[in-house]
Amino acid sequence: MKLPWKFLLPAFAFAILVGFFIVGLRQDPGAIPSPLLGKPAPEFSLESLGDPSWKVGSADFAGRPWLLNVWATWCVGCREEHEALLAIARENRLPIMGLNWRDDRALALRWLAQLGNPYVSVAYDPEGRTAIDWGVYGAPETFLIGADGAVLRKHIGPLTAEIWERDFLPLLPPAAEEG
Amino acid sequence: MRLIAITVLLMLGASAVAIDTGQRFEDPAQQARYERLIRDLRCLVCQNESVADSNAMLANDLRREVRELIVAGRSDAEIRVFMTERYGDFVLYRPPVKPRTWLLWSAPVLFLLGGLGVVAVVVLRRARAARANPATLDEEPDRQ
Predict the structure, then answer these.
(1) Right CATH number for B1-96 from 2.30.29.30, 1.10.8.640, 1.20.1440.230, 3.40.50.300?
(2) ipTM exceeding cut-off 0.85 for this assembly
């Protein structure tokens, strides 16, 4: 018995649906592309976490690549990535600035004393204003800023050695140049 | 009747539990703009809630930001640009019409046209069948 072609329509419709699912379900809904990529890094000047009289800002490392890491003591992922950050700091390829987001100064300082401090400096942003300028919506987030001051890369979620080597290192100038 | 009254009162009660703890605007027009804007902004941590509905820390910060921009005299369009420059189009619940979203925006019309097409085919086919064989229409009464 030959089936009329229209009996195949539901099968086609189903195939299209499956196609959408295959594409859609593989995407990470938490990874929202940042509109900042390729654009100049948003400027800021905030109190230093350790010393309120000292200003820390986006111009501190002008002319060289640097990393901005958004963290807080209430953030589980930040604890998870802390070892990776310490390892990157030990590589000494580029300075890491911390952006302490919506946190308590005393708690944050205790965290750094206990777990080690990978940051050259930490900007204190208890109201989250600078974080909004950078499009931050969930810590940890890590931005790579190039020597020309443009945002080259954004990673959302805990950083690992693999992610660092795969997504960030290729964007850096050769190690010899960095000294 | 009493049941309806109770239901309505309960619904009013639910909306009285405000998530937004910020101060209201003096100017009702500004308050209306503020409420409309935060309803149209997505809370990015809790992606299926608007900035108006969410009590996430980020939503709270974004409400404060919208409030301050309104006070600073910025227009609705400027506030939306402020948000998309930082968070991308994803922050808007009403995506802008651009080449990437043409399919999205035209989908309802396309589905409607598709449906009309199906209806037209069915109606025409029935009409043709009726014309070709008029007897089928009043076949039943004749049977007796």
Answers:
(1) 1.10.8.640
(2) no
